[in-house]
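Tokens as discussed.
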């Protein structure tokens, strides 16, 4: 295992339904010293979402300007909307000697590997294919065609695991969050 460096960007990625959002939420709740990047998007806020907390909601035109100015570590188009990780806040965090965490998709992780090769890429894997299927179908929020598209994408995403520096198997959200925080290192030993 490589040495832990608190001044290193850590990227969490994995297939749809593996629990990335749940792990991120638990880290936000229990490890306030971990800085989580807030992505920019052109999609409209959903009920309960706050600008600057859940996402930076920007116009399509503003997002295009940010791309042209090189303001993103990574960006992608998904379902007609643009999503990206603003470079400035991440760089300021790292320059301060503090850990930074991104929770993004596989495509974004690959872009970060190119734009910031020293980043630590962590793959969040399901305990089994059957468990991933159960999690995706158990959400109850998507139709059969959407679930099949997500399962097809997940099959492909699982093959990318060797591209990552570390793999965490998400047996439980608590265990996965603990393992991820250990990889981040702590700038303040007593921070809990």
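Sequence:
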């Amino acid at each position: 295992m490589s040495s832990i460096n608190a001044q290193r960007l850590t990227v969490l990625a994995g297939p749809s339904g593996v629990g990335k959002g749940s792990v991120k939420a638990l880290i936000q709740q229990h490890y306030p010293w971990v800085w989580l990047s807030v992505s920019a998007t052109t999609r409209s806020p959903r009920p309960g979402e706050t600008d600057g907390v859940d996402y930076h909601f920007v116009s399509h035109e503003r997002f295009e300007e940010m791309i042209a100015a090189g303001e993103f570590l990574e960006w992608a188009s998904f379902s007609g909307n643009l999503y990206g990780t603003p470079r400035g806040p991440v760089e300021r965090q790292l320059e301060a000697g503090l850990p930074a965490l991104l929770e993004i998709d596989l495509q974004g992780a690959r872009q970060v590997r190119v734009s910031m090769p020293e980043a630590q890429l962590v793959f969040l894997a399901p305990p089994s294919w059957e468990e991933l299927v159960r999690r995706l179908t158990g959400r109850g929020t998507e139709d059969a065609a959407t679930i099949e598209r997500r399962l097809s994408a997940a099959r492909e995403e699982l093959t990318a695991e060797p591209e990552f520096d570390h793999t965490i198997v998400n047996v439980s959200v608590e265990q996965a969050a603990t393992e991820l925080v250990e990889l981040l290192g702590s700038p303040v030993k007593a921070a809990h």
